Amino acid sequence: MVLDKIGILGGGAWGTALAAAATQAGRDTLLWAREPEVVDSINNTHENNMFLPGVTLDPKLVATNSLVNMSDRDAVLLVTPAQYTRPMAQDLAAVIRPGVPLIICSKGIEVSTGNLLSTVLEEAAPGHPVCVLSGPTFAGEVARGLPCAVTLAVEDKDLGEKLVKALGLPTFRPYLSTDIIGAQIGGAIKNVLAIATGIADGLGTGENARAAVITRGLAEVVRFGGLYGARRETLMGLSGLGDLILTCSSTQSRNMSLGKAIGEGKSFTEIMAERNSVAEGAHTVDIVYKIGQEKSLDMPITNAVYRILKEGRPAKEVMETLLARPFTDETV
After folding, report:
1. Distance CA 106, CA 133 (A)
2. Is there a single domain that holds both residue 12 and residue 140?
3. Shared domain check, 121 and 98
């Protein structure tokens, strides 16, 4: 199996960054975007003016808004928002060859079912190997060729090695894992926790509080991952702890910037109306909260984000309630 022709499904910032990396790795790369203006921008000015302005793209990168053009791809990276994975995978499966590997690059849980995206793909596109690429990455830095490391979770080691060879660069370093479940859990829950750290930051609680939220948030990731059989070492690796640290440490993160704006007094509805990109944690918190309640998981930070975003509770009031919880042992 030669993986030379790479398809990227999704023309947002992260999809564009992955397309830039695949092109730099020497692959024949085709990027599908829903928006005609994104396709025109990439093909004619070699820049994604809508979602990744200021980053010059290789002229070899080609964009399309016709899914049929993906029919000759050797592997496809799915970078559409998590809640659109199912319909996009169904449409994609109708045009690509049997057995083409599908690599999940979005982070989230399907809200309508509570399924991880790997399960969604198994149902929507049966017969295609499912892989996961996740880790501590900001799209702009990846697109500019700045160094990063990611987890590439693949059950078939031979396929994993072929994908590493196809996509790997000195500045884009995939580390192989077989824990497809764990690679998804960290990426999904960290978005919720990034909103929490942003809220704390917006409220002016300080750097100590941010470190506390990150660390105790990691405990929630581990508890939640235990429900699905995620490996602890995966949750402590690039796609877990690494991604959590990055996303909770910079307003380059859409989720942290959302939380910060809420902490500073803006309403959730007002913030989302101003944005053209998705803060996935705002969707993921619904299902994580629901599952946590059903399974009696101790998820106080997740619960706090839910109450602020979905119940409209004042951020300061919820934070004070969180700080008033009884003292307990530091157990994970």
Report:
1. 8
2. yes
3. yes
